[in-house]
Amino acid sequence: MSESESVPNLEIPADEAVSAGDVAADVAALQRSATAVLALLAPAVGELGTLFATAGHEISLVGGPVRDAFLGRASADLDFTTSASPDETEALLARWGDAHWDIGKEFGTIGAKKFATADHPEVVVEVTTYRTDEYDPASRKPLVAFGDSLEGDLSRRDFTVNAMAVRLPELTFVDPHGGLVDLARGVLRTPIEAARSFDDDPLRMMRAARFAAQLGFTLDPDARRAITEMAERITIVSAERVRDELNKLLLGREPRLGLVVFVETGLATHVLPELPGMKLAIDEHHRHKDVYEHSLTVLDQAIDLETGPDGPVPGPDLVLRIAALLHDCGKPATRRFEQGGTVSFHHHEAVGAKLTAKRMRALRYDKETIAQVTRLVELHLRFHGYGEGAWTDSAVRRYVTDAGPLLERLHRLTRADCTTRNRRKAQRLSTAYDGLEARIAELRGQEELASIRPDLDGEQIMAILSIPPGRDVGAAYQFLMELRLDRGPIGADAAREELLGWWGERGA
């Protein structure tokens, strides 16, 4: 793509002339970024445009890839929209790609791939027929109707920054709703009236929160007002689709920004009520901290403790982030005002684990993710008390064993949970946890902590006690496991003597 073929200069509408000076330089910079990124589009994409045009069909690059091009980011997967029908698209992609597949023909979407060669990298595309979506008020699924123009298709997009297109093969920029100006301003605005847009597809309200987290953008006042008034309508969308948007929000660059939108517009009340539920009234003497703000800070600090791809907790880590956000969700149900003016939240970790599991099941999370998150919530207070030096080697072993493969995440959640402004207290807690990690490392050097097992296995237990498989074997194994945790590895001979003594005390 030559400089003469670059994205044309933006014509700023008259009603925006007052602010033109504020954004003109930013728009120009975005144009330069897009020119550079679009110039790198593989020749295979140009071939795709020529193929559709020769067949008499329109095709354009749309949505996130166009937005990201202006932000200077190249997208690995490319989205297109076309005037061709799904059957026509499938036939053309079969000629263009090395592989093609039906992503959802009823929704008009066909996928294809060109394998990497010495001349170009792998290219993956999704091509969707022009369409318009809306929800039946009584249904959880959108109604799909195919459209007849690029402009009509762009008008049904969620936000103006995602309603820009580049026509192929001529690489003509199309921006009927002023998305480029909004991109320069960092604003999320709907292409049509916000209330109508969110009524047509309520999931767009979740996307508003998600894009705030991913892009760091703010909501247009009309969009914020409409979401606040229509938040309850999110309940008609399937739990799985809502969950996926929530995950993208939490895995975004700045989840706090998205969560603030999520809570302040009322969406969270219908999706994750435990989060706004942590906004406990603060008493005049401030005897306890704001649990909601504390949880957002813990999330920020946990994110800071994520590692690179080669570290023990590569970021972004969904399990750690959900656990950090919900670790104190049991506090509202357990808050008690004690004599002397103190406030207690006894057993809030256990209550919080149950609430977290219940909510995650409602949002259709998989069993493994639910188990991992709830275990972290359950264990997040286990460290407290270590600073007094009361932990034996047995307690350290139990800490490691109970955390299991979640230990590195638990380290980070526990450290992130310190949000006190008292520097002396914060330093004391940090030093104490440094000490615990050093104890764990020391014990690891002496024995196997990653997968602690008794000194005798089930077969040996049955042979020593002359018993068949059954409950007694399980009880014996548990006894030896407790022995192993308390005393460390003692060897098979000592374990045999202990086992026989225990068996005798049972009167067997």
TrEMBL record:
One of its GO terms (biological process) is tRNA processing. Its cofactor is Mg(2+). Residues 287-448 form the HD/PDEase domain. One of its GO terms (molecular function) is nucleotidyltransferase activity. SUPFAM superfamilies: Nucleotidyltransferase, Poly A polymerase C-terminal region-like. NCBIfam families: HDIG (TIGR00277), tRNA_CCA_actino (TIGR02692). It comes from the Bacteria. Gene3D superfamilies: Beta Polymerase, domain 2 (3.30.460.10), cca-adding enzyme, domain 2 (1.10.3090.10). Keywords: ATP-binding, Magnesium, Metal-binding, Nucleotide-binding, Nucleotidyltransferase, RNA repair, RNA-binding, Transferase, tRNA processing. It holds the Pfam family HD. This is Poly(A) polymerase. Signal peptide: none annotated.
